[in-house]
Amino acid sequence: MASKLIKDLDAGDRPREKVLAGRLKDLTNAELMALLFATGIKGKSVIELCDDILRDNGNPRITLKLLYPGSLKAVHTLPAIFVLGSAALILLSIFVRWWFILPLAAYVTAVFAAALASTRSLKIAALAVPSSLIQLWGYGCGFIKAFVIKILLGRGRDEAEEIALRKGK
To answer: 44 - beta bridge partners?
Structure first.
């Protein structure tokens, strides 16, 4: 895979610069997540990491809904609601007023405080924040993508293919 390090991209193709230039529609889901995470992991840029997270997370829930129509519950949509809400808050804080970010900051603070109280470790508390955001954004974006592709557009594998895949054939 070609390098996707943000520093290697042309200035106009970097996610933050796209947002500042008003080119939100040009952002991929991975680039939007990359704005939140800011850094990758050893051997992976932040955009590559976000691509990996988004690939299949949340997808199985929509597949199960197609196979078992009554199985999707309101609670399964919460990560998708978190993604849409936090993206809206981030954009509102950039373009309207800074204080729109406060609910997201309160969530991050609560995660940090809960992790610190339960583990008494600053390192674990600091790692709990990106971990919770990656988990919610990964599942939420995957759920939204699968919902759009499989439910709204009616594309993807058919039921027989899904059943065979689940049985390991």
So the answer is: 41
The CA-CA-CA angle for residues 125, 50, 123, to 5°, reads 15
Are 139 and 29 in contact by the 8 Å Cβ rule? The answer is no
Instruction: Say how far apart CA 91 and CA 71 lie, in whole Å.
Output: 33
Spatial contact of 78 and 56, defined as CB atoms under 8 Å apart = no
The 10s digit of each residue's pLDDT in 26-83 is 888 888 878 877 777 777 888 888 877 766 566 677 777 777 778 888 888 999 999 9
Angle at 59 between CA 18 and CA 159, to 5 degrees: 135
Domain ranges of the chain: 1-55, 57-169
State pTM to two decimals. Answer: 0.61
**For residue 122, which amino acid is it?**
L
Q: How many CA atoms lie within 13 A of 51 on its CB side?
A: 11
Q: What percent of the chain lies above the pLDDT cut of 90? A: 33
Tell me the C-alpha distance between 68 and 60, whole Å.
12
